[in-house]
Design brief:
39% of the residues lie in helices and 19% in strands. By secondary structure, it is an alpha/beta fold. The protein binds nicotinamide-adenine-dinucleotide.
Length: 456
């Protein structure tokens, strides 16, 4: 089945059809229309998978994807044009340009936490750049995977775009094939497997992985606003967000005020009975749900801690000063649990932050410009926000991605088009002049050779 799909996509790519910008645009528009028509059905599927609130489904899944589509449809012609560069004097007379071209067949593997957006968003760039694609959504958001498969089947011929539904076995089968590009979003553990499989064919990859994202609140921060923005960034999607703040490092002088405000905001967002709120999602997989419950064992709680196994509800929970060797401080906290750790002196911060290299996101709440600048400059992380959380993902002019442990490559907007394009360098020489200096015998041009560096 996989072999057959791969062969069909190879044959289709060879027809050169996807190199026509009008063809790409036609299908991006069809996809746009189908998503618009199915927006409610997509939201229903997300609700069925993990009770994702409709507002969050619109804001973080369908509308983000529609914004990417609008942008790609508007700009694909322009992006696909050859980009003329200044000609080198060494080639005089010549014209020189960069020609973006598609790689070929692309494999996109996506996770369950933003299952619609993280599948379709990279697909848009892959298609805008002229590739064909096979999409493998997560098996842990089966209702969303089903609607994605339906939409794709309706819009595209399978030799152009296909969805392969299934779990690890399907991924493994797909990864055994040769791809011209692999785009993976998921855990760092599986990212390493994907990278190894890609290396066998020297296939370029984008790996959108995970990290333990620090959120620092210093003594000068606007605490009310910081608490509101941290609570929002942590609790949207029930904390199952790769760029959610993972743990808070707060200056001792403002810790109590921050914790009080966090509690106040949680209750304001969801009311006294959070479990009954329509605005708070559930933990999607039983594995993650159990892991999160285990993280709470033996911890001192400042708020929350309740859960309900029936529908994998986990209350927003604030953990007070966890031990650094406890499970909650070992890996990523992928749920609505926020460890709060206090510090007294700036010099202590590095001990925490450097324990977890290359976070995917990084947050600083401070009104001290020197501190903001130092924090943003000192550490290597995917992307970050000063005085807010998560929102750096919302601007398509900013590349979204990790570095080191948290990933390879950045996308969104034109960055996605560029990522899925090979940038071919072309020089067109004129024939009316041929400066003879490069040809042997070299004795004539020897006196010029040390001036060569001025002509590159
Ligand atoms: P995961 O790595 O378990 O799975 C991701 C995808 O890989 C799924 O489609 C799954 O079927 C497939 N897969 C799983 N095991 C595999 C294997 N052995 N071989 C081949 N394929 C395999 O991740 P997840 O649990 O679905 O998602 C949560 C993780 O993703 C979190 O760590 C989160 O931080 C990360 N994430 C990162 C981003 C980002 O943009 N950087 C976005 C969302 C989620």
């Amino acid at each position: 089945m996989v072999k057959h799909l791969v062969a069909a996509q190879n044959d289709f790519f060879a027809t050169q059809k996807t190199k026509e910008v009008a063809y790409r645009k036609k299908y991006l528009k069809k996809l746009q229309q189908e998503i618009l028509d199915q927006e409610d059905v997509i939201c229903d599927a997300l609700y069925a998978d993990f009770k994702k609130p409709k507002f969050e489904s619109l804001a973080t899944e369908t509308q983000l994807v529609l914004a990417e589509l609008r942008h790609a449809i508007k700009n694909v012609k322009n992006w696909s044009e050859p980009d003329r560069v200044g000609a080198s004097l060494l080639n005089f007379p010549s014209k020189e340009w960069v020609q973006p071209e598609p790689y070929g067949k692309v494999l996109i593997i996506s996770p369950w936490n933003y299952p619609f957006m993280l599948s379709i968003s990279p697909l848009i760039g892959a298609l805008a750049a002229g590739n064909t694609a096979i999409l493998k959504p997560s098996e842990f958001s089966p209702n969303t995977a089903k609607i994605i498969a339906q939409i794709i089947r309706k819009v595209f011929p399978p030799e152009y775009v296909t969805v392969a539904v299934g779990g690890v076995e399907v991924s493994t089968e797909l990864l055994a094939e040769k791809w011209e590009y692999i785009f993976f979003t998921g855990s760092t553990r599986v990212g390493k497997i994907v990278y190894q499989k890609a290396a066998e064919h020297l296939t370029p990859v984008t790996l959108e992985l995970s990290g333990k994202n620090p959120c620092i609140v210093d003594g000068t921060a606007s605490i009310k606003l910081a608490a509101k923005r941290i609570a929002w960034g942590k609790l949207i999607n029930a904390g199952q967000t790769c760029i959610a703040p993972d743990y808070v490092l707060v200056h001792k002088s403002v810790k109590k005020a921050l914790v009080d405000e966090l509690k106040k905001n949680i209750l304001q967002f969801y009311g006294d009975s959070i479990e009954a709120s329509q605005d708070f999602a559930r933990i999607t997989t039983s594995k993650h749900y159990e892991e999160l419950k285990t993280m709470l064992k033996g911890q001192k709680l400042l708020f929350g801690g309740n859960y309900n196994d029936e529908d994998q509800y986990l209350e927003p929970t604030l953990v007070d000063e966890p031990q650094l060797d406890s499970t909650i401080m070992e890996g990523e906290v992928f749920g609505p649990i926020l460890p709060i750790i206090s510090y007294e002196d700036e010099s202590e911060l590095d001990d925490y932050i450097s324990r977890y290299p290359n976070s995917l996101a990084f947050y600083v709440f401070s009104n001290n410009k020197r501190f903001q600048k130092r924090m943003m400059g000192q550490y290597s992380f995917g992307g970050g926000t000063i005085n807010d959380t998560v929102v750096h993902i919302s601007n398509k002019a900013l590349p979204f991605g990790g570095v080191g442990q948290s990933g390879i490559g950045g996308y969104h907007g034109k960055y996605t088009f560029d990522l899925f394009s090979h940038h071919k360098a072309i020089v067109k020489r004129a024939t009316w002049l041929d400066v003879p200096l490069r040809y042997a015998p070299y004795n004539v041009s020897m006196k010029w050779i040390k001036k060569l560096k001025y002509f590159f």
